[in-house]
Amino acid sequence: MLGSTHGTLTTDFRARVEACGETPRTAVHSSAAPSADDAIPVDVSGRPLHADVPDLDRFFRPESVAVIGASDADGRPNTGITRQLIAWAERVGARIHPVHPTRATVFGLACHASVADLPEQVDLAVLLVSDPLPVIEELADTKVKFAVAFASGFAETGDAGAAAQERLAAAVERSGLRLLGPNTNLNAFEEFRDDLDGPAIALITQSGHQGRPVYTLQELGIRLSHWAPTGNEADLETSDFISYFAEQPEVGAIACYVEGLKDGRSFLLAADRAARNGVPVVAVKVGRTETGARMAASHTGKLTGADTVVDAAMRQFGVIRVDGLDELQDTAALLARARRPRADGVVVYSISGGTGAHFSDLATEAGLTLPTLSQAKQDELHQWIPPYLNVANPVDNGGHPVGDWRGRKIIDAILADPEVGVLICPITGPFPPMSDRLAQDLADAAERTDKLICVIWGSPVGTEDAYRTTLLGSSRVATFRTFGNCITAVRAYLGHHRFTTGYRSPFDDAPRTPSPSYRKAQALMRPGQQLSEHAAKQLLRAYGIRVPREQLVTSAAAAVRAAGLVGYPVVMKASGPQLGHKTELGLVKIGLTSASQIRDAYRELTDIARYENVPLDGILVCQMVERGVEMVVGVTQDDLFGPTVTVGLGGVLVEVLHDAAVRVPPFGEDQARAMLTELRGHALLEGVRGAPPADVDALVEVILRIQRMALEFGGQLSELDINPLMVLPRGQGAVALDALAICR
């Protein structure tokens, strides 16, 4: 991880950033966001389009603090907490006022009998009481800005606790103050080192102990500026702190440990604000498995959400999801401190051909770009590296030069290549003096380049001087202990800057007024009912989505006439509001080419429906569309994020392969196309085994129209499923062959 030299933030850091041609961020809202005096705009369904950023300055640096339930009695839990709060208040320059009904003084400070007796309006009230609800109601009259409740026994304990938390949240809303907790801890009042410079990590955790590895980064020279332990999030939540931290000029990255999201929309708005400001958000989000989700719910009392949707939503808005706390600390440290990349190319430089080949395999498999160095560059490197060694990339030096200047020449020559943005040197174990000189040359080169240099120090000991002093003492070298963490962090680093370069918020283009399509389709909705296939297709047609030529008939004679109008061959299907999977019931007949087949099929379909006791509104006689790629496009309602759009391989493959991609509206054409590239079966759209390429543009258009429908109907549309959507050869469009819609 990146080390640090000592000093102050403002002068040194600003000078270094400006030397790279970049301007430091300042604590102002993005130009795309509304000012504090403006009303927050809403989309067509009334949901906000920008994050409401809370002013948390007085929480983290209050001028006055009340400690309610303060104690200095030996053996009392509140005594240790009171002592820590007094020390913290002294560090941040705050006046502290103990409150206790039976004490005249606490640790030599005048103690007040009640909240009403406080000598001044306080910025922050810390509640060391088992039931914070009565105190919140007392604080309502004091105009206090913030409160912290440590007490447990709320939503994390079950239904009764959840009800108590709802009462607490309601009291907080009435009071006008903002609450951290309940079920939180003292992490917000930790002592942070003030002798470290450079951009800092701001930390958010729902479980305090899980933030310890990131907090401990300070011992390796990485600056930490804030720690928000959100607890049960009865009021202030993870999203509030992401939005706030994204506006702070000293914050280089936000590291999060998330168990459950309180509100998916708020989270995406906060992530969007961070992306607008170019601030990376790195998150561990538990709940990938059923067991993990169950444990998370019991600890925080919140929904974890369907993990596939959470994962997709994070990627969609640039949140970097990692699995382990070690990845969290390494990735956040790199993203906070490294300068913007000048190129995406990664060069691996090692003293062993085996080490270079091993790392290169892993890096390439992870998606990093390892460009082959030009012949001219290879010839240059062979001035100092024996000609029998491979220097195309990875660069094998055969043993870093120790006795002269050649080592720096090699490193500088690699960094001078315009295709190279990152140099990675895996040192699998100490081998002095070679490893010592290599580490020093890398550290020296890092001070003179604007490109990223990463070192993996593989020794399990970690006490070597080259590691502890040379590498960790460098403010410019990113040092890792494992191949995997280095690859994860570098991939996130390059990906973050690609994502935020020219970033345009999807919320800026979200519809704010209903479309004519919505007004036409609204008349077709049936609250609380499933629509028949015919009615669902009319819904699609209202949004300009192509469906086959078809007619709904109620007699065999009408079916024959319809087939003549539609054109042979035809498909006949039963249509009714309670029909989902028609094929399994034998209620679909395909490839019908004559009037006699039509009459027989009509009789058979109605007989099956009568036997299965399935009510019908008629029989559909449909155009038969054969040649194309079967896809599925649909809308579902997620408990956290609301309507979500899914696309995947259709027909029976959707149930067999589960090959699908998800996005949370709003999103643009770029995300719609990205959904398709995420599919394992994406090659089918490009044309395989002689098949022509599919009309991907038409498929993207359908996805965007379905998204518009999801946004406009919001919660009114419980589920929509187009399966299959037949994507015809390029230039011929896409046709929704079947559809299911369920209204709320």
UniProtKB/TrEMBL annotation:
What domain of life does the native source organism fall in?
Bacteria
Keyword terms of this UniProt record: ATP-binding, Ligase, Nucleotide-binding
Domain ATP-grasp intervals? 537-575
User: Per UniProt, what is one Pfam family of this protein?
Assistant: Succ_CoA_lig
Kindly list the residue ranges recorded as spanning the membrane: none
Keyword ATP-binding on entry: yes
Which SMART domains does the record associate with it? CoA_binding (SM00881)
A Gene Ontology molecular function term for this protein is:
ligase activity
| Keyword Glycoprotein listed | no
Q: Which Gene3D superfamilies match?
A: ATP-grasp fold, A domain, ATP-grasp fold, B domain, NAD(P)-binding Rossmann-like Domain, Succinyl-CoA synthetase domains
Name of the protein in its database record: Acetate--CoA ligase family protein
